[in-house]
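Tokens for Sec-independent protein translocase protein TatB. Go.
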Amino acid sequence: MLDIGFLELLIIAVVGLLVLGPERLPRAARTTGMWVGKIKRTVSSMQREVSAQLEAEDLRQKLDDQQKKLDDSLNKAKQDVESLADAPGKQARQVERQAADASARLDDALETLRETPPETGQDGKKDETSHER
């Protein structure tokens, strides 16, 4: 804090002795010592309080970061579960669409077969070899 050496303290004591005199110097030194002690304790207390506040703020920041990470993980897990729950419904709809498409193609093929006249051979009879395939 203050960088006072032995020589400076000696000069202050001599000046104090000359100004205050030998009767009041011990009382003044005691009073000065008490005030210096109070100031040191106050400064030390303030330093501890500031340090505690900084640590608390750091802990709050870490806690907030962990809370955000936890929330993100929870949301991702929720989305994964919802997608897994929706997957059978989506697959069922996809299978239904595929079945409907296949049914429509079969219906079109049957109609095409009904509309197509049978092929006749050279002797006027149906050519049965073409339908056996």
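Helices lie at 6-115.
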